[in-house]
Amino acid sequence: MSRTRSFPVWAALLGSGLAGVLVALQSRINGGLSQQIGNGYVTAAVSFAIGLVVMTVVLLASRKGRAGLGRVRTEVRTRRLPAWTLIGGAGGAFFVLSQGLVAPLTGLALFTVGIVAGQVLGGLVLDRIGLGPGGRIDPTPTRIAGTVLAVIAVIVSVGFSGDATDQSVLWLVVFPVFVGVLVSAQSMVNGLVRSAAQSAITATFVNFVVGTTLLGLIAVISVATSGWPTEWPSSPVYYLGGVIGTIFIAVAAMLVRTAGVLLLSMSNVAGQLLAALAFDAGAPLGGGLTLGLVAGTAVALLAVVIAALPWRPRSAR
C-alpha cells in the first residue's frame, strides 16, 4: 500500500529547508544568550519554557489541539501509541542545551556540521527500521552515499580548521553529532504523536512539556551549584529562541510523513548550513569562518543533494 501524502515532496522539502534556517537562527540566539548570562543550562531551560508558554496559548485557542490531547491519551491507554513516543521532547531539549553549551565554543558553522552528520546518520537508520509514521523506507545507494559524505564533511571541517577555531575544543563536535541523531528521533516520534492526535499543535505541545520538564530539572541543579545568573540582556531578541523552536518542531511533525525521516533531516540541515555560514561570517559565536568550515559545509550540502536524488533500480531483464 502506498503512503498517503498531505503535501508534494518538493513542498515538504522546501518547507523543511526554510525551517532549517530558523533552527540556525535559534542556535545563534541561544548561543548568544548563553554567552551573555554565563549559564548554558539556564539558557536552555528559559528557551524551552518560553516555547511552552507559546504552545500553551496556542493549544488553549485550538479546539483541534485540545481534542488531540484526548486522542493521545486514548491511544496511549489502549497501547496503540507506545508511551515512549511521548518523550520526543528530550531530543529537542538536548539540542537546545548544546546550543548554549557547545555552539559558543566551536562556532555555529562547525556545530551545525556536527548536527548534520548526526541527523543524516539517524535518519538513515530510523527510516530503515521503519518506526516513523511513514513506515519503513529502505536505504538507496544515493541515500547511503549522502550519509557517507555528511560524515566526511565533519572530518573536513574538523581536520582543516585553522587558527580561527580553538583546536582544544574541536573534539566537542562529537556532542552535536550525537545530538543530531536525537533530533532525527525527535522528528520521528513527534510525527507519530501528530498522527495519533491528528494535530501538529498537540504534538508540539507534548514535545515542549517534556523538554521543559527535563531542562528545568537540569537548570535547578546548575543554579543550586553555581547560583542564578546576575546579568541578563535587555534586548528581546535573546528570548526568541523558544518561539522559533515551536515553528521548527511543528513543521517537522507535519512533514515527516511526506518526506521520511532522512529526507526531512537532509532538507532541514541544508537550510541550517547556509544560515550558519552566514551567521559565522557576519556575527560569529566562536572564532569565525575558516577554509575548512566552508569546505566542510559545501560537502555537507552536496550530501543533502545526493541523498535527496530519486533512485530507480534497473528493471531485471
What does this 3D model show about the protein?
The protein has 317 residues and is an all-alpha fold. It has one domain (9-228, 243-308). It is 74% helix and 0% strand. Helix 1 (9-37) crosses helix 2.
Fold blueprint:
Layout: H1 9-37, H2 40-61, H3 63-77, H4 89-101, H5 103-106, H6 108-129, H7 141-159, H8 174-197, H9 200-226, H10 241-282, H11 291-308
Give me some keywords for this one.
317 residues; mainly alpha; 11 helices
Helical segment count: 11
Residue windows where pLDDT falls under 50 for at least 5 positions: 1-5
N-to-C SSE string, H for helix and E for strand: HHHHHHHHHHH
Helix content: over 70%
Report the major sheet: none
**Number of spatially distinct domains:** 1
Tell me the quaternary state: single chain
Short description:
The chain has 317 residues and is mainly alpha-helical. It is built from eleven helices and no strands.
